[in-house]
Write a structure and sequence with these properties.
alpha/beta; Signal recognition particle alu RNA binding heterodimer, srp9/1; 60s Ribosomal Protein L30, Chain: A; five-stranded mixed sheet; 9 helices; rod-shaped; binds magnesium ion
């Protein structure tokens, strides 16, 4: 199975970190097992003369030099301090004895060494912080998902139909000789939808926000109600998950107009038309709707809290 590149990177840094920690641990253990023995310079000179020194590391200081030497065939270290003036003679004698010599400036050498030694540690710390952030953000997502709830609201509306009025349903004007009696444009589907949305969010009903006693709403386009309801939902961090509606009327046939209605409603609510499902029913000639005297709509809306 192919491992994603991010996983490879994380695995790489993880093992780099583990390797570095192991190296430091091993070094500490070995150092403790074989601590360098301090010697006077005169004693160290005897070791050099006896060709007992395999290799040396010399760190230059202001007027002196620190010498760390590995003794031939023993794996033991000794250390000593020599005056700077003695250094040329010492190195010559060490070379004569075929010892490896490594000389470095203490300050700059240490800084370089420190940076090189610290690089894996910095990478490891960065990786751990990255992992911690990922774990933290995952926990937040899980927490947020746990808090996310869906809520459902129901809406119903009915308008009487009278001759000579525009029939507007779902924001679309339909060719018909009758239209709803109402304070606004009488869009029965928009009104029921508005109530369903407000109910799901616990924000009252359409009459609370757009009272029919307010002249401002006389003849108003009901899409304005939906747009306002959407803003109220946004303020309370609700998103519209799904809308299902039934419009009941004997005439005219609504089905052919549903695509345009869905588009108009979706536009007013700022959602995709796929979230809005419309159905049409007749009342089989029964009661006022059946006699063509009224139009009604039932809507159920589901919201998700964000
Ligand atoms: Mg109404």
């Amino acid at each position: 199975m192919r491992m994603p590149s991010r996983s490879i990177t994380k695995t790489f840094f993880f093992w780099i970190g583990i390797g570095f920690i192991s190296f430091i641990f091993l070094k500490l253990v070995l150092t403790n097992k074989n601590p360098a023995a301090g010697l006077a310079y005169s004693e160290f000179q005897k070791l050099v003369d006896n060709n007992d020194v395999l290799s040396v590391k010399i760190y230059l200081e202001q007027d002196s030099a620190k010498v760390y030497a590995l003794l031939r065939g023993t794996q033991k270290y000794v250390e000593t301090t020599i005056p700077s003036a003695e250094l040329p003679d010492l190195t010559r004698r060490l070379r004569d004895g075929r010892a490896n010599i490594n000389i470095s400036e203490v300050r700059s050498g240490n800084w370089t060494l420190n940076v090189l030694m610290a690089a894996p540690l910095i990478l490891l710390i960065g990786f751990c912080l990255y992992l911690a952030r990922r774990v933290q953000s995952s926990a937040r997502r899980v927490q947020a998902a746990g808090r996310a709830t869906s809520r459902t609201g129901i809406g119903y509306d009915l308008h009487r139909l009278e001759e000579g009025r525009k029939l507007i349903v779902g924001g679309i004007e339909l060719p018909f000789d009758k239209g709803p009696v109402g304070h606004s444009d009488g869009d029965v589907l928009a009104h029921a939808l508005c109530d369903a949305l407000l109910g799901a969010a616990g924000l009252g009903d359409i009459g609370t926000h757009f009272p029919d006693t307010d002249a401002k709403w006389k003849g108003a386009n009901s899409m304005l109600f939906l747009e306002h309801a959407k803003k109220l939902l946004d303020d309370k961090h609700f998103a519209i998950e799904h809308v299902d509606a039934v419009v009941i009327t004997e005439k005219p046939k609504l089905g052919p107009h549903f695509p345009k209605m869905r588009e108009a409603l979706a536009k007013a609510l700022g959602v995709s038309a796929e979230k809005i499902h419309l159905k049409a029913k007749t009342n089989e000639g029964v009661d006022a709707i059946g006699r063509g005297e009224a139009i009604a709509a039932h809507v159920i809306a589901t919201l998700i809290s964000r």
